[in-house]
Design goal:
alpha/beta, three-stranded parallel β-sheet, two-stranded antiparallel sheet, about 40% helix, globular
């Protein structure tokens, strides 16, 4: 019997990517605080959050194979967070244009 594979993310995009591999997996999202630390680079934020998510799930399910990942989007040195509203989404798209 193989250990279960867990995706430590609630991201529909990450779920879709993993599903394309055709392997059975479950999702176990942690809901950790995604606020960047003062002075933390975008890349370091993504690495830290991926690690924290994976560790949190691994502590709950130590027998599982845990996949943790995160991403941070930026444009012209400005972090683009999840927009939350239509107006913010449109402003982000205009910035990237």
């Amino acid at each position: 019997m193989h250990p279960p594979i867990l995706l430590a993310s609630a991201s529909p995009y990450r779920r879709e990517l993993l599903a394309r591999l055709g392997v059975a997996f479950d999702v176990d999202a942690t809901g950790i605080d995604e606020t960047p630390l003062p002075g933390e680079s975008f890349a370091d934020t993504a690495k830290r959050l991926a690690r924290l998510n994976a560790l949190a799930v691994a502590q709950r399910r130590p027998q599982a194979i845990v996949i943790g990942s995160d991403q941070v989007a930026s444009c012209d040195g400005v972090r683009l967070d999840k927009p939350g509203t239509h107006d913010i989404a449109m402003a982000q798209l205009r910035r990237q244009r």
